[in-house]
Amino acid sequence: MVVEVDKEELLWQIQHKKIILLGTGEKGRRFYGKYKEMVDIRYASSNLDNETIGNLERIEWKSIIGCSEYFIVVCSAAENKIAYEFMLYGLQYGKDFVNQSLAEALLDKKEIVLLVGQCELEFVDCIFKTNPKFMQKYAGFCYREYDVLGINDQYPKLEISLMVNVVIGCADYFIYPVNLSKERLDYYGMLLGKIELHCKTAGVPLTTFEAYWPQDSEEYYRMSIFYKKDAGGKYPFGGRRDLNLESSVENGTVQEMVGKVLQEDFYPEDAVWKLFRKTIRKYRILEKKADITISDFLEENYRKRRVFLDRGHVCDFVLKEYAKRIAEFLGLDLDLRFLEEVDLEWYNQCQSEQPIYPSVQKCLEFTENTEYRFWVNGKLCRATMKGYMESLCNYMSGIKKLDEKCFGDRNVGVE
In angstroms, rounded to a whole number, what is the distance separating the alpha carbons of residues 377 and 237? Predict the structure, then answer.
């Protein structure tokens, strides 16, 4: 059953019911120490040990199922896993329990900022949370679009969807992506129908950036059969495609193709400019439905400096611009100078870079990297453009040989 509550209703439950803390570690002890005079914390429980907190009576949470006088606050790093287990036993998020961060936000009277969407918004949330002024006044909650919609062969997570359904009713600000997918438009439209009247919203145009990479023209989540996930569930080389190299692996012409794509005349200049214009136009179309604009910033900068690491991941200074424009539009009380100065080197190091062909580079004003970073099996690697291409071809050739060994000599092609 879907629970719909607003901020006042949920706060009333926390303040007027007997509280059970699920988690007896540092998080539970901190919550108890801070709020024991504000709410009626009666019991402690844990799935991992038989400990308690202070003088709290120990209780097994399964023994109170169906008892409406109790309310559980989950104080554990494994809060999502615990929420799923609770739901299997019939406990409902927002009615029978919440996690510690939401309980603290309500008790501290903070304004709730909810972000749901792709990784750009995840990193905007991180940028906001590095701002001391933000942390004093606001509580940020960010949920991945992959978890609620099951995009890119991932299954949706029921516990996350139900959490979002509760937090949206408590939100003072809601930040969400605007794109052309019907499934996404329907989902975010549903969430917008649940917000309170006072909630301020910001629709952010987020889509892929094809301008630098004419060799990667397939639908964004459509992977080649040459690309297999590693043990960690990640695609090597960021999962981005190079249709020219894929074709060369299939046809046995790798060295010849690598030589060709490294030439400055591989793609005609007029075709490169056409793709540039098409990409910017796509953002402008999205912006008609959005509250934030970014096409002007991309158009101003894409020739001067690289604005995307690959089709789906912006560079750090573009992330900062997104964060700044969202904060300004919503009127968030932040130090915007701090946003511009925040160090995002950690972000750069966790993203792969997709090389830009020389035939595309000649239309740009910035000098492209001499080396590129990319992740393979959890290891950060660096290589020249030629080295990157050869490594990618070697990887795809290995997958092709493995496929032929497992399934026989068949005509392995690109999906």
Answer: 10
Phi then psi for residue 232, to 5 deg, are: -90, 5
State residue 62's pLDDT score. Answer: 92
Alpha carbon distance, N-terminus to C-terminus of the chain:
40
Q: What is the pLDDT of residue 357?
A: 94
Q: Is 22:45 a contact under the CB 8 Å cutoff? A: yes
CB 209 within 8 A of CB 44: no
In the sheet where 57-58 sits, what is the strand order? 57-58, 41-45, 18-22, 70-74, 97-99
Instruction: Give me the pLDDT at residue 239, please.
Output: 65
Map tokens 């740009």 to a residue.
Answer: 364
Helices and strands (DSSP H and E) totals, the chain: 18, 13
The reported pLDDT for the residue numbered 107 is 98
Report how far residue 245's alpha carbon sits from residue 208's, in angstroms, rounded to the nearest whole number. 21
DSSP per residue, 228-249: ---TTS--GGGG---HHHHHHH
pTM across the whole model? 0.91
pLDDT of residue 414: 45
Rounded Cα gap, residues 265 and 358, in angstroms? 8
Q: Token pair 């695609």 is at which residue?
A: 235
Residues 6+ apart with CB under 8 A from 206: 117, 118, 120, 121, 177, 178, 179, 286
Q: What H or E segment, with its residue span, contains residue 168?
A: helix 158-170
Write b or e for each residue in 253-280: b if 16 or more Cβ atoms lie within 10 A of its Cβ, otherwise e.
Answer: ebeebbeebeeeebbeeeebeebbeebb
Q: Kindly tell me the sign of the dihedral angle through the C-alpha atoms of 284, 290, 296, 297.
A: negative
> What does residue 340 show for φ and ψ, rounded to 5 degrees?
-70, -30
Q: How far apart are CA 241 and CA 257, in angstroms?
A: 15
Closest CA to 208 of 296, 119, 123, 297: 119
Residue 3 has phi, psi (to 5 degrees) of -100, 130
Q: What is the mean pLDDT of each run of 10 residues along the chain (415 residues)?
A: 82 96 94 96 88 91 92 95 94 95 97 94 94 95 89 78 94 92 87 93 94 84 72 65 91 93 95 95 94 97 94 93 96 87 86 91 87 80 91 87 73 48
Phi first, then psi, for residue 129 (nearest 5°) are: -75, -10
pLDDT (0 to 100) of residue 15: 96
User: Cβ(334)–Cβ(131) under 8 Å?
Assistant: yes
